[in-house]
């Protein structure tokens, strides 16, 4: 992703020699990439939800997430017994 942004910025800078509006676009692209594009920024809030992947902040949060996941897995097995059995068979192979 960074390579695409940097090459796009380079193209905008080269085009900027003819029109200064492209310079502004290049600066805006770089600003947005630094602010929102990289996942290492501390200003980006961690992902939440069942597929969030964020580390739990406490043991209670971990237990809540684990219990919710177990509830969904039980529901899936109950509503789709044939699919659940097929997946279990594939897992043991």
SSE arrangement:
Blueprint: H1 2-15, H2 21-37, H3 59-79, H4 81-92
Helix pairs in contact: 1-2, 3-4
Description:
The chain is mainly α. It has helices at residues 2-15, 21-37, 59-79, 81-92.
User: What is the SS-derived class?
Assistant: mainly alpha
Which outline best applies? elongated
Order of helices and strands: HHHH
**Biggest pleated-sheet summary:** none
Radius of gyration equals 23 Å
How would you name the oligomeric state of the polypeptide chains in this document? single chain
Structure annotation, total helices: 4
Low-confidence stretches: none
Instruction: Compute the number of strand runs.
Output: 0
Mean pLDDT, all residues: 80
Q: Termini distance?
A: 37 Å
What percent of residues are in strands? Answer: under 5%
Helix content: 55-70%
Task: Write out key terms for the chains shown.
elongated; mainly alpha; 93 residues
Sum this structure up briefly.
With 93 residues, this protein is an all-alpha fold. 69% of the residues lie in helices and 0% in strands.
């Amino acid at each position: 992703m960074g390579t695409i942004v940097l090459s796009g910025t380079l193209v905008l800078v080269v085009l900027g020699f003819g029109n200064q509006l492209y310079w502004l676009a290049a600066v805006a692209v770089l600003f947005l990439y630094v602010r929102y594009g990289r996942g290492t920024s501390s200003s980006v809030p961690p992902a939440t939800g069942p597929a969030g992947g964020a580390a739990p902040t406490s043991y209670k949060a971990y237990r809540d997430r684990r219990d919710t996941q177990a509830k969904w897995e039980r529901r899936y097995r109950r509503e789709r017994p044939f699919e659940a059995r097929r997946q279990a068979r594939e897992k043991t192979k």
